[in-house]
Design a protein that fits this description.
This protein has 466 residues and is an alpha+beta fold. It has one domain (2-287, 350-465): Alpha-Beta Complex (Amidase signature (AS) enzymes), CATH 3.90.1300. 39% of the residues lie in helices and 13% in strands. It contains 16 helices and 13 strands. The protein has helices at 2-8, 12-20, 26-44, 98-105, 148-155, 172-178, 199-203, 213-223, 259-274, 289-314, 326-338, 342-361, 388-398, 403-408, 437-450, 462-465, and strands spanning 47-50, 67-71, 109-114, 126-127, 131-132, 161-166, 181-184, 205-210, 244-247, 278-281, 366-370, 412-418, 426-431. The strands form three sheets. The chain has an eight-stranded mixed sheet, with helices on both faces. A three-stranded mixed sheet has the order 1-3-2. The chain has a two-stranded antiparallel ribbon with strand order 4-5. Strand 2, helix 4 and strand 3 form a beta-alpha-beta unit. Helix 1 (2-8) packs across helix 3, helix 5 (148-155) packs parallel to helix 6 and helix 10 (289-314) crosses helix 11. The protein is globular, with a radius of gyration of 21 Å. It starts with a helix and ends with a helix.
């Protein structure tokens, strides 16, 4: 058990370095990882498919031999690909994506699939297919979502890093709730991670949740589309210049964050000022919050309506009511009821919001806000069996900062700077202009150096328990 804990404390690059020096073999890394999953996953329910027989020999890349998880939103050949839905509970992926090929070539070894909400629609990780995933900082609390399984697996030391994706905060919010680093790349920065296309898919960025900034930076350098613009490459160092940082705390729906979140935010402002950055409170962009919320859920409803239509065309029996969760059906029905003008309306709302965001933040290097407006919620708070209006209201109260960066195509990150004596971690959010991924990563290195978090382990983690 001691060996389980010692390897669990290492990030992906450190594990790869051990393997490269011959101090541990790829098989030993894999066996130790599977043992950690066996020890804690029955309690946490972060991993929904374990690839005991499936992993292949590690390629000689920078992550050679390092075990990781793939979020169940993304296919991986030979593994179940359910997207958190009973509709696809028996679906096995056959084809590798360009994104997956890059990860294989880097030497990463897929040990399974991580839990998510159904189709990534809710900011929770609890489904009628898999049940609830538990936050290792407090088992009664949600790791949020939709990439909660990935965040829990990293926070518990089951894997050093895990693939995730983000259509409105689904990397950054679980990273915040679990005390981890969560980076969302700019739109179009990486090679494709899926085979389908939709407005919701266009807002979604694939990346990872990690314990260290360097793992995230290396992961981005491996997966980025080198034919699109100027490649970021592997960002290795803290930023060397002082930044002009715009900041506000009001959510897109006009609310202020809860007091613990405000305290975490104030600490972050003080730290940035101490580091020499110019932090300037500004008037938030004049968002039409209700219209943005309406447009966002219309776009998600359109994407899932397309999935249902495709399934209806490929099988004899149409999709049944018990194959999708009530909230998913409600989104589909709302979208269809709005008629052919629904998507053009949503796109117009988005365009107006993006214009307002860029006008308000023009001339600044970085934008600082909280990641979530509330502390992480209890399991059941965003249960998919609750009514559509109540779920959207609760989501809007908590997830009030991150969706605009998906809509605008900006890079964003949640940085784990606040670990209260009581309660769960609270992340701080940073965003930059589209394409400025390297600038954000450089800032992340600086913050990691100033307020190290690598030894902050949750109570229900391998290092804490063993």
């Amino acid at each position: 058990m001691k060996e389980l804990a010692s390897l669990a404390r290492l990030d992906g690059m450190a594990q790869a370095e051990l393997c490269a020096r011959g101090e541990v073999s790829a098989d030993e890394l894999l066996d130790a990882c599977l043992a950690r999953i066996d020890a804690l996953n029955p309690l946490l329910r972060a991993v929904v498919t374990i690839a005991r027989e499936q992993p292949r020999p590690a390629s000689p890349g920078p992550f050679s031999g390092v075990p990781f998880l793939v979020k169940d939103a993304t296919p991986w050949p030979g593994l179940r690909w359910s997207l958190g839905s009973r509709l696809f509970a028996a679906n096995i992926a056959q084809q590798q994506t360009p994104y997956g090929r890059r990860l294989e070539e880097s030497g990463l070894v897929c040990v399974g699939k991580s839990a998510m909400s159904e189709f990534g629609l809710l900011g929770s990780t609890e489904t009628l297919l898999e049940g609830a995933t538990h936050n290792p900082w407090d088992l009664a609390s949600s790791p949020t979502g939709s990439s909660g399984g990935s965040a829990v697996a990293v926070a518990a030391g089951l894997v050093p890093l895990a693939h995730a994706n983000d259509g409105g905060g689904s990397i950054r919010n679980p990273a915040s709730a679990c005390g981890l680093f969560g980076f969302k790349p700019s739109r179009g920065r990486t090679v494709p991670a899926s085979f389908a296309s939709s407005d919701f898919g266009d807002m979604t960025s694939d990346h990872c949740i990690s314990r260290s900034v360097r793992d995230s930076a290396l992961f981005l350098s491996i997966t980025e589309d080198r034919s699109s613009g100027t490649p970021v490459g592997f960002v290795r160092e803290p930023i060397a210049r002082k930044l002009r940082i715009a900041t506000w705390t009001r959510t897109m729906l006009g609310a202020e964050p809860e007091p613990p979140v405000r305290r975490a935010y104030d600490e972050a402002v003080a730290l940035l000022t101490e580091l020499g950055h110019q932090v300037e409170p500004i008037v938030p962009p004049p968002f039409d919050g209700p219209a943005l919320s309406d447009a966002f859920f219309l776009v998600t409803g359109a994407a899932i309506a397309g999935v249902v239509e495709m399934m209806d065309q490929t099988r004899d029996v149409p999709v049944q009511s018990d194959e999708l969760e009530p909230f998913t059906w409600a989104l589909i029905e709302t979208f269809l009821a709005r008629g052919p003008d629904a998507l053009p309306y949503a796109r117009a709302v988005f365009a107006q919001a993006v214009h307002a965001y860029h006008e308000a933040t023009r001339g600044y290097d970085v934008v600082l806000t909280p990641t979530l407006a509330t502390e992480p919620w209890r399991i059941g708070h965003l249960s998919p069996v609750l009514g559509r209006e109540e779920l959207i209201r609760r989501t809007g109260r908590a997830v009030g900062y991150t969706p605009i960066h998906n809509i605008a195509g900006c890079p964003g990150m949640s940085v784990p700077l606040h670990f209260p004596e009581k309660g769960l971690p609270i992340g701080t959010h940073f965003a930059a202009a589209p394409g400025a991924d390297a600038l954000l990563l450089g800032l992340a290195y600086q913050l990691e150096e100033a307020r190290p978090w690598k030894d902050r382990w949750s109570p229900y983690s391998i290092p804490a328990l063993f």
